[in-house]
């Protein structure tokens, strides 16, 4: 018989000792998928046709097909039939790549978090998605999809509607006054730095970078060929006085003033002014990465650097933390000539983000859902953050939780002088992900007894279970640390 | 009175000679928008509140507001009130950029088509959107938006579901066998070349490029610092014998074999094999840009270069022509190490496209809508293409229409030896956009009597009106050309 109209022959030899007939049939079809003879989108013949062809009872064939559907290998589409599911591709062997004589450049492997199935995930920069208003978002997407299609390729600056509502939002929420022409929509804040690096940095440039700091931003700047120099940070953010007196042309300093990544300090107002003065004095740019500054707890707001210095600051924002990471939208606010240069460059690269998600996000913001969602999540994150602090206190655990004025993560500082990298490694084996702070240092770490704890994504139950496990494990590895 | 809760003072002096009161009020509010005191998203007070505050009849205030809504400056949201519309930002003066001492790199201005409002748009690479199944697409988007959100940032290779259905589609429709691991999702074909340029080209590389050819691809390769060399094309595509015997390491040749851009030739099977042999012999890569090869008319299919040479070919596809340009999705098929290097690089750039559009497109393809849509559009484009040929013949016009085996555009070759760039310039003044072929040449054009005519987007009526106007204008400019 032919399993589908595309002439894939099937011949099953049923062996009586080999389980039920239905199982044997399912096994055979599974093998055809694994070997690539059936691929996602291929349709199975009807159970009636298969039963008649294979001389089996129709119920037997149905059982086999139901098994394959339950496994997720096949899917039923009402009124159309049963098809190989797209997930089935994961079963398939990749095609041999062939022995190529083609040589290509060495690209550094981006320091991105691997996808690991884990029990408790304390990695930073991961928002909670539980409270996201999916129904409202679907409506915004649906509306965006019904606005008239355009034969144009889009605007490399980003959709004018989205840039306009971001302009209004920044004025309202951050006191940052920037016209739509000074905003470029990006795929996120790292993308903004990538575009900036291309239009601004040269091999002679220097990039002054926080240490510890955000690895992806660092790698993005390093890729441009500029020289990186590292600056100390304390609980108030980057130590501006450590910046040099002489800098080459086209240099920049990268800072995370709302919530230093990963230590969590907020750059004091005094340092903000000093930094701006330094940049003005040396004709250097400041990259202000405001990756999670929307979440601020019980402390007064501090003006973004971009709000009092528009000529030397490129402000980078992202919707990854306030919406969800897969949205892939963010923006940069910069002087108009820089914005235009970034758009020119990206017109020769990835061109522009998807029009639909931009328009949907513009509606979501302008209808007030965005700020309502942030407000709601701020309450939830405040509670989770409080929970960690209370848990440590009430159980008299030998650690404190720091860097909590804002953001989605804090620093768990253990009352020990020993490095806790081994603890984190042991935890990872047990599927508790909690990166040691040493991971974010380039130079020799000056603090080895700290770990970064993202508290936004895990539930309260997971946080409790995770922390219990952390200190149990610590007790086993460093009994002295817990005894004190 | 305060126009909104954010304390924007309004004081209107009504002057009796200055039009109706309603007009004066509308003018005043319009001015507040233009000056940026009211920005998109701001809410107007109720007509009742404004009437009482300004001591005007409520009907007068309503008339003013209705006028502003009709102009598109304001919009009503049911149950919420009247708000400054996002389009209003276009009225606003940009913020002064400030006199910056910041110097940035010179980025070439990408050769993209400007947005011009025009009567008939014959520019190439623009699909018709009339037949697009918007309802089905909305359903796919809505389904994608209801699949569970992930705290992950996505896969820099692109969503596995989309890569899987593309793998199946290529096998089915183009005879190109590639696993999901050999496919990287991009924002379009130029983006694929941009990523490839970064992982493969160096300053010592050479890029062999068709002349005339596709400007954006050329600029993308040029930006990498590689040396560009230009190759002749004839009615069968690139002249393979003009490629040199010696090439530096990490070189590539860029071709548009399905429908040479812009001349429209199809690369013959013999030349495909010669090209593959040349690449194998020199360890060079072939970039196969299949930008509109889904549309083929009355000619047998030709195997993509990638289908018989997987080690030296990077095949670039796009959904801009088969879906719509604003979707910003395409893909590249390449040997696995190249695909992985491209993904590594993009993890430090724009990271990944939006998850929602990728998943929605995967459903659209796997449910069969994609191929049905292509099939339907092929019939429509065939008809439009035929219409141009018939129009020229039946009116005995001094031109022929060439390069029509496939794609969405053809070459209008005039029976004159004189350059037709002036004709195209004159047409543009009259809002008929039809680029002369000279625009796509880098070296001295060898054919000056040709224009590129995209016939996909305009309607039959527009095509007729446009062509009538073209030959009328030609008659005025070059009477001799039409007299023959």
Tag the structure with descriptive keywords.
484 residues, 7-stranded mixed sheet, homodimer, alpha/beta
Low-confidence stretches of chain A: 1-10, 93-99
Q: Rg of chain A, please?
A: 27 Å
Shape type of chain A = globular
What is the oligomeric state here? homodimer
How is this structure best summarized?
2 copies of one chain form a homodimer. The first copy, chain A, is 38% helix and 13% strand.
Structure description:
Two copies of one chain form a homodimer. With 484 residues, the first copy, chain A, is of the alpha/beta class. Chain A has 15 helices and 16 strands. In chain A, the strands form five sheets. A seven-stranded mixed beta sheet of chain A has the order 4-12-11-10-9-5-6, sandwiched between helices. A three-stranded antiparallel beta sheet of chain A has the order 13-14-16, covered by helices on one side. Chain A has a two-stranded antiparallel ribbon with strand order 1-2. The longest helix of chain A has 26 residues, at 369-394. At the A-B interface, α4, α5, α6, α7 and α10 of A face α4, α5, α6, α7 and α10 of B.
Task: Spell out the blueprint of helices and strands.
The structure is a homodimer of 484-residue chains.
Chain A (H helix, E strand, L loop, with lengths): L20 H14 L12 H8 L3 H13 L3 E4 L3 E4 L35 E2 L12 H13 L13 H15 L8 E4 L2 H12 L5 E5 L4 H9 L3 E5 L1 E2 L2 E2 L13 E4 L13 H14 L2 E5 L15 H4 L4 E6 L11 E4 L2 H12 L7 H12 L2 H26 L4 E4 L6 E6 L6 H9 L2 E2 L16 E5 L5 H18 L1 H5 L1
Parallel strand pairs in A: 3-15, 5-6, 5-9, 9-10, 10-11
Antiparallel strand pairs in A: 1-2, 4-12, 7-8, 11-12, 13-14, 14-16
């Amino acid at each position: 018989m032919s399993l589908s109209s595309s002439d894939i022959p099937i011949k099953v030899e049923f062996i009586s000792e080999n389980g039920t007939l239905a199982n044997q049939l399912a096994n055979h079809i599974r093998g055809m998928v694994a070997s690539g003879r059936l691929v996602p989108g291929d349709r199975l013949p009807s159970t009636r046709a298969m039963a008649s062809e294979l001389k089996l009872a129709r119920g037997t064939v149905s059982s086999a097909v139901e098994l394959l559907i339950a496994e997720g290998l096949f899917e039923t589409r009402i009124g159309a039939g049963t098809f190989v599911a797209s997930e089935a591709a994961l079963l398939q062997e990749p095609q041999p790549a062939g022995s190529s004589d083609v040589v290509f450049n060495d690209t550094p492997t981006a320091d991105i978090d691997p996808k690991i199935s884990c029990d408790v995930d304390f990695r930073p920069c991961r928002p909670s998605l539980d409270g996201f208003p999916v129904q409202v978002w679907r409506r915004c997407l649906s509306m965006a999809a019904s606005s008239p299609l355009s034969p144009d390729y889009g605007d490399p600056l980003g959709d004018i509607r989205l840039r306009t509502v971001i302009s209004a939002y920044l004025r309202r929420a951050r006191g940052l006054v920037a016209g739509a022409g000074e905003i470029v929509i990006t795929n996120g804040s790292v993308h903004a730095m990538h575009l900036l690096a291309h239009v601004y940095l040269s091999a002679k440039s220097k990039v002054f970078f926080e240490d510890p700091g955000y690895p992806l931003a660092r790698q993005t700047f390093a890729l441009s060929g500029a020289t990186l120099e590292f600056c100390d940070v304390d609980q108030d953010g980057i130590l501006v006085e450590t910046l040099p007196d002489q800098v080459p042309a086209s240099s920049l300093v990268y800072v995370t003033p709302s919530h230093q990544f990963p230590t969590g300090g907020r750059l004091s107002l005094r340092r903000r002014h000093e930094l701006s003065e330094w940049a003005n004095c040396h004709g250097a740019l400041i990259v202000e990465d405001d990756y999670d500054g929307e979440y601020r707890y019980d402390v007064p707001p501090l003006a973004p650097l971009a709000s009092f210095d528009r000529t030397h600051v490129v402000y980078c924002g992202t919707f990854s933390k306030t919406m969800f990471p897969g949205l892939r939208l963010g923006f940069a606010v910069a002087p108009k000539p820089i914005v235009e240069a970034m758009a020119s460059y990206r017109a020769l690269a990835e061109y522009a983000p998807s029009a639909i998600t931009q328009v949907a996000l513009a509606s979501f913001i302008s209808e007030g859902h965005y700020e309502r969602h942030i407000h709601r999540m701020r309450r939830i994150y405040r509670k989770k953050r409080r929970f960690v602090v209370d848990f440590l206190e009430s159980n008299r655990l030998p650690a404190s939780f720091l860097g909590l004025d804002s953001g989605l993560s804090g620093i768990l500082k253990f009352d020990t002088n020993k490095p806790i990298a081994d603890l984190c490694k042991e935890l990872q084996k047990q599927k508790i992900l909690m990166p040691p702070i040493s991971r974010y240092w380039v130079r020799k770490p000056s603090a080895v007894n700290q770990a970064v704890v993202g508290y936004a994504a895990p539930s309260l139950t997971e946080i409790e279970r995770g922390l219990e496990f952390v200190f149990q494990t610590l007790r086993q590895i460093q009994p002295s640390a817990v005894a004190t």
